[in-house]
Structure formats: structure tokens, C-alpha cells
Amino acid sequence: MRLSRKLEKLFSLDAAQRLWEHICRSTHPVSARRILATIDQDELERLRKHYPYRPNARRINAYEDAAYWIGVNIKHVQDLWLDRAPPLQILDLGCGAGYFLYLCRLFGHEGLGIDTGEDAFFGGTTQFLGVHRVIARITAQTPLPDLGKRFDLVTGHRVCFHWITRDQRKEWTSADWEFFINDIRTRFLKPRGRLLLDMNPRLNGSSFFTEELRVFFESQGAHIFRSKALFAADPNQRARFRQTNNSPRRAQRTRRNSESTS
Predict the structure, then answer these.
(1) Each residue of 103-128: pLDDT tens digit?
(2) Which is it for the CA torsion 27, 33, 39, 43, positive or negative?
(3) Which of 160, 164, 177, 196 could covalently link to 170 via disulfide, CB atoms 3.0 to 4.6 Å apart?
């Protein structure tokens, strides 16, 4: 890599935002070691042997590697301050192996996942981790199934349901995104709820947020930070990653739970 390119990356906006993320996380550390001690990693290995890799599956998706995925999902928890928040109702879109919702439960939250059910290993891990999920597919211009309740937080990490083709040559339009965001806001979020979408980069390594998509998401009220778009239930309000709460008793109870896990 040329020196100019290295310097460009070093002093880019993304680099500054990455540093800010690291600083924020450091103010409320979470112990991965203590969380890993709650998981029988031998059982995860047995599950992988029972449900072997699908043909051509990338080993980067070695979800039996609990140490790696707990580390990844601790960052997700910290970015939303869930390790210091009062108990929340959380819906995770594309919950996969269930690590995120497992961590959320450790910090006193109640979670529900949505996933396609195509990967049998995920069925085994979510059952093993005690994560409840609903089998459904997220498709353009189609409402999500009725779950009978509303949530304080709806999340989607490593989002890829918007790609219509695997080669990313065809993806959701702005109208498709508007339908989806409106469906979440009107049917699944509580009045002070939030929707977080953490987008996968494009195949060439560039950000999902092209200039056109950034303008569109911001027109929908999104607070965009790096790969993340955060929405408030009310499109006229700006969502915050650190949600304030006026219930000191609930917050104190959650802090005690967090400290016992940190």
C-alpha cells in the first residue's frame, strides 16, 4: 500500500470514529473471560460436528468459536450501552447463532430473534444458549410476521437481507427500505424505541452507505455512524446510542447485574 494511501486511512473520518468507539467502550468495560466461563465450549464443538459446515461455507463464519463471537458481540452491547441500561425488550433480526441475545439476557434484558431457519447449526446453538427465535424471512415490501408485542430496541447486525442476489448486483431500492423502516416503526417499536441497522460492507470493501443511500437514510431520520444507522420510533427525533432513562431504580438494578458480569 502506498504511503499516501496509508496516511489517508490513518487520518480518515472512519479512523477517527473508530477511535471514538474504542474510547467509549473503554469507559464501561465488559469481561469476555467471565462471559465465556458461562458457556460450555465443548458442547459448541459437539454441535458443529453434529451440524457440519455447508459446502463452500467460509470459515470466517466459524460460529462455534465462542471466544471470537463473544468478543464481537460485547462490542455490539457496549455500543448501545446495554451493559448499563435498564431491562429492555429486544428484537434481533437475523439472530444467527444467538450470541448477541445471549449477552443481552446476561445483562437483564429479554430478547427474541428472527432467523430463516436455513442453518441447522444455528438451531442447535440458539437452543443451547436459551435464545428464543421465530422462523421468518425478511423480504422487500413484505411485512414482518406479527409477534404480538412491541420492543424497546430492534437490532440487525451484519445486515445482508437487503441483497437480492449474492453478487450484490441487485439490492433493495429506497422504496423497499422505506417500507421496511416504516413497518418496524409502526408495528414493532415502543414510543421511545430504537432501530439499529449495522450494515455489512460491499464486496469491494467500500461502505454500504453510498452518497445516495446516506442521503435517503438521513431523510428517514437515521443517525449514521460508521456502518451503523440508528433510528428513533419518531422520525422527527434523533436517536441516541446511549439511551437515557428516568427510572433510577431500574437502572440501579441493571448496574448491579452488569458489575457482576464485568
Answers:
(1) 999 999 999 999 999 999 999 999 99
(2) positive
(3) 164
- List residues bridging with 223 in a β-sheet: 230
Query: With bands split at pLDDT 50, 70 and 90, how would you rate the model's confidence at 244?
Result: low
**Are the beta carbons of 159 and 95 closer than 8 angstroms?**
no
More confident residue, 245 or 158: 158
Question: Which residues face 92 on adjacent strands?
Answer: 113, 155
Name the CATH superfamily for 30-261: Vaccinia Virus protein VP39 (3.40.50.150)
* Predicted confidence band of residue 67 (pLDDT cuts 50, 70, 90): very high
Judged against a pLDDT cut of 70, whether residue 188 lies above it is answered with: yes
Residue 138 Ramachandran class (φ > 0 left, ψ -120 to 50 alpha, else beta): beta
C-alpha cell at position 209:
452507505
Number of neighbouring beta carbons within 10 Å of residue 20: 12
Supply φ then ψ for residue 7, to 5 degrees.
-65, -35
Q: Give the closest residue to 185 by CA, choosing from 241, 239, 225.
A: 239
User: How many alpha carbons lie under 13 Å from residue 158 in its C-beta half-sphere?
Assistant: 12
Amino acid, res. 255:
R
Count other Cβ atoms within 10 Å, centred on residue 214. Answer: 15
Q: Which residue has the cell 437514510?
A: 217
